[in-house]
Amino acid sequence: MPHKPVAAVEPYPHPQRARGAGRYAPSPSGDLHFGNLRTAVIAWLCARATGRRFVMRVEDLDQQRSSLESARRQLEDLRALGVTWEEPVVYQHERFAAYQRALEELQTRGMVYECYCSRKDIREASRAPHAIPGQYPGTCRNLSDEQRAAERERLARDGRVPALRLRAEVDKWTVRDQLAGEFTGDVDDMILRRGGQDAGWAYNLAVVIDDAFQGVDQVVRGDDLLASAPRQAYLAHLLGLSPVEYVHVPLVLGADGKRLAKRDGAVTLRQLIGDAASPADVLEEIAASLGVGGARSMAELVAGFDVARLPREPVVFRGVKPGTAS
Ligand code: GLU
Question: In ligand 1, which atom is closest to the CA atom of 207?
Fold first, then answer.
């Protein structure tokens, strides 16, 4: 999608951080499904239950897959369910200057290096006997200036630019998660800025800078991102930002036991409403999955919600029954 030019440089920790905030941060690449909506509702409830503000962020870093129209529909659906947030909504495509500042800070400290590997190079290197699956093996970490110049030239001939990676000083980091407890996970020389032909900011950097900018100190999201939390927490630590509290909630599964997706049929709010359910019916189904049977509004959900009683098991989506009242 055509993105607006970069906004003026802004400081990244929020200047007037009165009290902490929770957030929801959807990627605008299609309508939110029942699982996404449930996570958003849980995030809102966790913030409310702990006296936090609630903010929204549209994660449209991936310009090929994101659209403003999709973001508009997602926000409309969230509003229809009764999720509320403080304006303004932050759009990542307006935040590039802040990512650049953070990158420069790390560069000044010698913590960034260029990486010339293609995806294929990394795949092959990570098949080596001592490689850790999914981890960058450090191929470009210690190249000489001559080697770097040659690699840079090789990429330039194909019209590509190098990626930029963090020179990590640890290989593990521990975060606190309300559901998982102390969680220690791998940290590698993560990408800060992608290279190749689709050069752009990396999610791990953007999420850390934006959470700090929006005053977020509670991150509630799907547990498919638990493994990324140590990387993000380490990056926040390097940038002098306060650690956040995590709540990684189990994903909603389809009837086949795989994570809920479009193939499971009517899964988005609009589809469910098309099938005669109302937003209140959808909320009731979400409430039931949280042990707050009978709640049909956010106010009723808040009254019965307890962070400590959040289910630790994945929930299987079995559709939404249209109610008689809305
Ligand atoms: N934008 C990500 C998603 O929609 C969520 C990232 C996050 O919550 O940190 O999956």
Answer: 9
